Amino acid sequence: MKFAVDGMGGDNSPSAVVEGTVMAVNEFNDIEIVITGPEKTIKEELSKYQYDKNRITVLDATEVISPNEHPVMAIKRKKDSSINKALNLLKNKEVDGIISAGSTGAFLAGCTLIVGRIKGIDRPVLAPVMPGLNGPFMVADTGANAECKPHYLVQFALMGKIYYESVLNFKNPKVGLINIGAEEEKGNELTKNAHKLLKETSLNFVGNVEPRDITSGDVQVLVCDGFVGNTVLKMYEGVTSNLFSIIKSNLMSTMRTKIGAMLVKPAFKKIKKDFDYTEEGGAAFLGVKGICIKAHGSSNAKAFKNAIRQAKKTYDNKVVEKIQAELENQQGMNNL
After folding, report:
1. Rounded to whole angstroms, how far apart are CA atoms 247 and 260?
2. pTM for the predicted model, two decimal places
3. What confidence tens digit (pLDDT) does each residue in 171-218 have?
4. Domains plus CATH for the chain?
């Protein structure tokens, strides 16, 4: 399998991107990588590492799209950008997937405009998997579609279910609709109508899920519009980060608490690992005609390596093909 990596995407590019790519190639012996970006700069970074030279190539790209640029306009104007070059490799089937930690807006716009949607999918979805109390959970969507129609959420649920079953090896995951109350009549027009449509599907739909219950992990696939999902994601990240800071501050406050901290250190190390985004690597952008993994903007080398691992698992489990096959077996998601 072969993947394209946006060499200039993310806060720590190209150094972290290159190091993570080398780590992935050295760990996974069945992948090849094309890194897009300024050829001289990328090759200088690669010269620092030992790896199979036949499995990493560089595609020169002279432009970079920054996070503060208008996503659609930047994709259209900067044809020689590192992300554009990577997206076109996927469009032309020269690679099987793409990984980028660059501008989320540009990445999503490029995946839709350049790579294209799977037939039958109205809107692709950004669907990260996060740690929960009783197991991981997926939120779809976390920012790709701020405004949605009810049947979009049904499509999100279908794609999320296929990904969760295939990559996380969890059969018939529960599907929930994020809402302000558990009662069926709660919510706005979008959630009320989406609830009706989801009830009519063959999905394992368990109804509305209140935000306070999301992180329990008892419902594996949670759907919502991108505005709500992005708010959930950022709130979750902020609470987790602040909670760890509060705990650390209090444990280090006195000699007595420091001694206690030494006793519980192994447990806290495990908890920290469970909540470390670098372990997952990135979020899958489902519904496009290829594997697209969006890595966190601040990704380090470990996160890039694991984002490539995530792309590999998506390839090995034929997630894109399964979504296509499921849609071919239906007459259209709008009729569910």
Report:
1. 12
2. 0.89
3. 999 999 999 999 988 999 999 999 999 999 999 999 999 999 999 999
4. 1-121+287-320 (3.40.718.10), 125-277 (3.40.718.10)
